Amino acid sequence: MAFPRSLIVIPARLASTRLPRKLLLGETGKSVLQHTYESAARARHPARILVAADHDEIADEVRRFGGQVEMTRIDCASGTDRVAEVAGRHPDYDIVVNVQGDEPEIEPDAIDLAVTMLLESPEAVMSTLATPIRTREKLDDPACVKVVVDSGGRAMYFSRSPIPHARTWRDSLLDDNPPHFLQHLGLYAYRREFLLKIADLPQSDSEKLESLEQLRVLSLGYPIRVGIVPAAARGIDTLSDYQAFVNRVRGH
Question: How far apart are CA 169 and CA 153, in angstroms?
Answer without folding.
Answer: 25
